[in-house]
Specification:
Distance between the termini: 18 Å
Radius of gyration: 16 Å
Bound molecules: zinc ion
Largest sheet: 6 strands, mixed
Strand content: 35-45%
CATH architecture: Beta Barrel
Number of strands: 9
Number of domains: 1
CATH topology: OB fold (Dihydrolipoamide Acetyltransferase, E2P)
Length: 142
């Protein structure tokens, strides 16, 4: 599911999309969490890059990930990262260990920040920021 937070102009920092990361962002726009998977050794790779982080192979292929993971760590931000984030405090920035292996930083959304715990299971959800950029966020599922 892809949702849009509001109809205001998006004024937060946006990712720079390049040739290596384009399939990831294309996937997000379609509601899919795409990760690179090494055809040589089977490792999953995130963030997007040219070489496998496990075996240095160039045979990285894009595959849809489960979108499931576990909260490795998190912080509750009471002070905004900048003026554009001021209306969202308190918010949760978390490190999520994806089921496939890679660790991803994102926000935990749809939950009282005080209820978030290390080890909770989460699932990806998508937030449309602009026409080009849709951001992966995570919701607690247990
Ligand atoms: Zn590899």
């Amino acid at each position: 599911m892809i949702y849009q937070r509001d109809t205001m102009a998006y004024d937060k920092p946006l990712p720079v999309i390049d040739n290596e990361s384009r399939p990831f962002w294309d996937g997000c726009r379609e509601g899919k969490l795409m990760l690179q998977h090494c055809a040589e050794c089977g490792a999953w790779v995130f963030y997007p890059r040219v070489l496998c982080t496990a075996c240095h192979s160039e045979r990285l292929e894009w595959e849809e990930a489960s979108g499931e993971g576990v909260i490795h760590s998190f912080t509750i931000c009471h002070r905004p990262a900048g003026p554009a984030f001021a209306g969202e405090t308190p918010y949760v920035v978390a490190l999520i260990d994806l089921k496939e292996g890679p660790r991803m930083m994102s926000n935990i959304v749809g939950a009282d920040p005080e209820s978030v715990r290390i080890g909770q299971s989460v699932r990806v959800t998508f937030e449309k920021a602009t026409e080009e950029v849709t951001l992966p966020k995570f919701k607690v599922i247990s």
